Amino acid sequence: MTLESMVAVPSWSILDSAPRLEPTAVQLWRIRIDEEVGREGWYVDQLDPSEKARAARFKFRRDQQRYAIARGSLRSLLALAVDCRPADLTFCVNPHGKPTLQGHDIQFNVTHSGDFIVHALTRAQLVGVDVERIRPLDDVDSIASSFAPEEVADMRQLPKATRHVTFFTLWTCKEAYMKGVGKGLSKPLNSFSVSLAAGGPPRLLYDREDPTAAQSWHLLAFSPGTDHVGCLAVDGPVRDVSFVNFSGVSHAFGRW
Questions:
Q1: Domain of 146: which CATH number?
Q2: Three-state SS for 121?
Q3: What is the distance between the alpha carbons of residues 208 and 210, in angstroms, rounded to a whole number?
Q4: pTM, 2 dp
């Protein structure tokens, strides 16, 4: 099973203005951290006081940059969607740590790995997203042993030389779903199963904690860039997905 047979390789659009977030749409926004280095001050300006304080506490400059860029770009996108100032947004956090936007129907999720940050935005539909850098793993079989029985069996049938590629594709699908349902890694990895059948999108087979999940949740595997894989999980049909580069529309946020 090759990566190309499982994962969509989208064209990430460079737009002059941010597209409207329609009720049936999902927007995936990609940011390359290295392209934004030197503009951290603008991102920090979008943060609220507690986030600015947290950014300042990071020991390493790279971690500070990643946090400020991820959080500042998220606030900018959400503020544009609801027409307010980025720093005025208020977030709530569920018992498992997933944030939501207070007072609005917009759902969002954030992930970062390597040089990439990806934001997923929808209206009213629960959403999760995950991105991972594909790399060799010595203990891939040991980690995968905590997956659902069907997933473990499928992994063991693959050549060891390429098993890590399938592992990261499957992992992003599972983590995107866990984030989407709002439980994150508190949800047992073997409580649900994802199929990576060649020639089609990944598919949720079952969730023992939610018998209806397989009918309502949809997965879309994608690549944010070379040697990376990601997955979008949406509680509803995935009809209209936009892949957009954040840097292409950053000027739209200048009014703040």
A1: 3.90.470.20
A2: strand
A3: 6
A4: 0.93
